[in-house]
Design a protein that fits this description.
295 residues, alpha+beta, Rossmann fold, D-amino Acid Aminotransferase, Chain A, domain 1, 3 domains, 9 helices, 29% strand
Amino acid sequence: MHAAVIDHNTTPTYTSLSILRALKQRSHHAYYLPIDKLSCIITNNGVEVRFQDKTLKIIECFFLRAIGNILNSERFEYRINLLKSLESMKKTIINPVTGYLNARNKFSCLSLLASKNINVPETLITENEFMAYEFIKKMGKCVVKPMMGSRGIGSFLVEDADVAFRRLHELREKGYALYIQRFVNKPGRDLRVFVVGDEVIGGMARESDNWKTNVYQGAKGRLIEIDGELEKIAVKVNKELGLLYSGIDIAEENGKYYVLEVNASPIWVEFQKVTQINPAEKIIDLAEKIIKNNG
């Protein structure tokens, strides 16, 4: 199999390297493609995506890791259409573009999950800071998050609606929509559950004294047992969003599980350390099966 990892970094991250090494260990041909080096040529003969003017026709499977976080709207649309053009060339992309977008945008993600009767925290998305003010007064403690982003970066906790109003007004004035979520009173941790295909391959608790329980923010992972309910929720989330694999963040409160966010390109350094499971192996197992079935 000829396979490539697409990422926005010039050099591969730990996670991208993990996929590349696992591919090579199985004697597959592995390539690393920074997304800004791709281009699309449209002619009467069709559409072709190329890498530095080199054909990609030999590559059967692309592992999509990241398209970049700080992009203007035109560049974002360009990169998404570039990936869709790859799909139009009958190439397998893991994760598929639609699923990747469903998870990347918190608005899309939570609204889709809620429509499928999956527990999510009460959330307000608005451009009106007065509505946000009333929501915080009603809910009490809330978390304000960027609509797109990960690792807890840019999120902040608000408890006083009047103090929050000033910060929310500033965000709106800068052109941001407001994404405000009721704070789930989790017990000093949340759960990261890793799904590949229709299988939960493992999970860990991310524990912290801080209200942010992201590993990037200093949380530590601890191995957990996945109960039947948690497994069922995680597999359903992955399927409903149209993903082939994902890292799902779930909080516990009063005996109930709440899905907070879903990552379509999760970093698994801490997960692998805690569980001794390399997700790259499982993801490549799935890729090989897909390519074989498509062959």
